[in-house]
Amino acid sequence: MSKAFVFTLLTTCMTISSSLGADRPNVLLAISDDQSWPHTSAYGSKMVTTPHFDRIAREGVLFNNAFCASPGCSPSRAALLTGRNTWQIEHAGTHASYFDPKYVTYTDKLAEAGYFVGFTGKGWAPGDFAKLGRHHNPAGPAFRGAGGKAKPGSYADAFAEFLSQRPEAKPFCFWFGSNDPHRPFEQGAGLKAGKKLEQAEVPAFLPDTPEIRSDLLDYAMEIERFDSDFGKILDLLEQTGELDNTLIIVTSDNGMAFPRAKANCFEFGIHVPLAIRWGKRVPSGRTINDLVGFTDITATIYEATGTTPPIPYPIVGRSLLPMLKIPESGTLDPNRTAVFAARERHSSSRYLSLGYPQRCIRSDQYLLIRNFKPERWPAGPAQKFANVKFGKDGHLSSSKLGPDYGGYHDIDACPSLTFLVEHREDPSIARFLKLATDRRPSVELYDVRSDPACLHNLADAPEHSALREQLVEQLNASLTKTGDARVTGNGDVWETYPRVSNLRWFPVPDWAEQVPLSIPNLPWLDDRKPRAASNE
């Protein structure tokens, strides 16, 4: 940004600020892309340095137990925008599909209430928001900055553009969605920047090797770039004099893009960082241990802004404001005994692009996961077709299998996965690949206090049978009450929602050959099959 542009911007914004009432706060949501909860310096990480996240935590509240709605970006962001569980928003509850406008977002409602609304970077994505009638991204109208392309390192330009166009006397609602630390990373960036391999914090579900450590340092570099961009936005906000009249929320959409993390309902897939600041309205320097979810953040925005939530399809979360305004730290609300998360399809990773449906309940100590299709591979099968042709009748006419271990597409392509595959014959490494890719039982239970890596499944342990029964019952009751098709009898509806991103093709799996009637009817998929003529 030029100095002249910034001076003009600040002069304009200070004039606007003086005319605004302090009873209608601005809202700034900063959301990273694929960051697990331990990875800020406010939580004690030595692998990353995040001074701007830490500032919000220090001048506001740091949440130790915040959970996203889904371990994948598109459905998790949709839940945050609508304030509803992913299983309550149809297409938007799965990855890379549609977003029905009947599910009203908090950005929609704030715009109706007189807020100036916008976003930069990654809003709701991936998916097609226009197909069912939306006129712009569910996160709001897009701002791209003076260069016309919002990207890491320049997101503050887009926020400056947004502020310069803000009408006088209007509070604002801005969504800053970074693409960091989404893969791919610049390989070796961490070491190049001077980080040391010994700084890397290797979770127990990955082998402790130089290759894995280097990949983690590259991930750390992208978190730091997100934090730097966030800091530039905070600087602009502070220079306009509106920092203290802005509800600032900084979090991540889901966990880190490593094997057995993102796209899984394990701790490193759903447990995310969260800090909230709101000037003098929120006592500073506190940590809260209560279990909170994304739908609670949505409810907080509605209450803080005095905006009426949508009816029908109401929000389901509970506002965090009562806890935010209490001057104490610790566990503050005894009624917050559990949070829930879910996933359906993530990438195109299986036969017919079927998903891997999971639901989970997280208490203060335990995580219970239900895998509704344990016959499927959780990361997808190891092999796919490399060359696919379909005849005019829509049936497969010719194909060629790709290389062994060329699948696993529910794990983002990365050096860590490559290392696991290339060293799969090494017994000390093979178990880590199996942890990420082998079939799993229908129920998993983990003590996350002693086992945050979720390596020791306690579901079949006799001494935990009562706990398992209690958590399964509590999960099923919540899913039934909120109308989840996976428990009300029409679970295959999730497979009928079209995928709008790229498709991959896989051989018929053993379970489909054994029970052909279990294959869902997917008319949307017929329209996506490449015909023989288009491949010649």
Walkthrough of the structure:
- By secondary structure, the chain is of the alpha/beta class.
- 29% of the residues lie in helices and 15% in strands.
- The chain folds into 2 domains: 26-327, Alkaline Phosphatase, subunit A (3-Layer(aba) Sandwich), CATH 3.40.720; 343-535, Arylsulfatase, C-terminal domain (2-Layer Sandwich).
- The protein contains 16 helices and 14 strands.
- Strands 1, 2, 3, 4, 5, 6, 7 and 8 form an 8-stranded mixed beta sheet that branches.
- The relative contact order is 0.15.
- The model is unreliable at 1-21 and 532-536 (pLDDT under 50).
CATH fold descriptor of the largest domain: Alkaline Phosphatase, subunit A
Q: What series of H and E elements makes up the topology? A: HEHEHHEHEHHEHEEEHHEEEEEHHEHHHH
**Structural shape:** globular
| Structural class category | alpha/beta
Low-confidence stretches: 1-21, 532-536
Total strand segments: 14
Q: Over the alpha carbons, how many angstroms does the gyration radius reach?
A: 23 Å
